[in-house]
């Protein structure tokens, strides 16, 4: 089943090989790639998503991630006084 509502910026792929070899067709493909990765109109461009994902993974690897989500999971109505836990994240980064 095709997904409706998705806009494709890429030119048609069912054109002849002669047209695909033209400069204009290549330029359309290049602009479509640029739009897909760096479109500033959308907040969720592919480049920004990848950048944020890698940043979060680096934080986790260095043990610098936010621990608030763990505190929220273990708290009872916001009370953490019953827990005697060290909330310092353990870094998993190995310096070889």
Describe the structure.
The protein has 96 residues and is an all-alpha fold. The protein has two domains: 30 residues, no CATH class; 44 residues, no CATH class. Helix content is 46%, strand content 0%. The protein is built from four helices and no strands. The protein starts with 16 loop residues before the first helix and ends in a 22-residue tail after the last helix.
In short:
The protein is 46% helix and 0% strand.
Task: Write the SSE topology.
Blueprint: H1 17-20, H2 23-38, H3 46-62, H4 68-74
- Give start-end ranges of low-pLDDT stretches: none
Number of strands: 0
Query: Could you tell me the mean pLDDT?
Result: 80
Count the domains. 2
Q: Return the string of H and E elements.
A: HHHH
The percent range for strand residues is under 5%
Descriptors:
96 residues, 0% strand, 4 helices, elongated, single chain, mainly alpha
């Amino acid at each position: 089943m095709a997904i409706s509502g998705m806009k494709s910026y890429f030119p048609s792929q069912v054109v002849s090989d002669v047209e695909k070899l033209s400069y204009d067709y290549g330029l359309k493909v290049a602009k479509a790639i640029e739009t897909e990765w760096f479109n500033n109109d959308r907040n969720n461009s592919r480049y920004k998503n990848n950048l944020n994902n890698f940043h979060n993974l680096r934080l986790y690897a260095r043990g610098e991630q936010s621990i608030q989500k763990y505190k929220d999971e273990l708290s009872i109505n916001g009370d953490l006084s019953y827990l005697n836990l060290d909330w310092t994240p353990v870094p998993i980064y190995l310096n070889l």
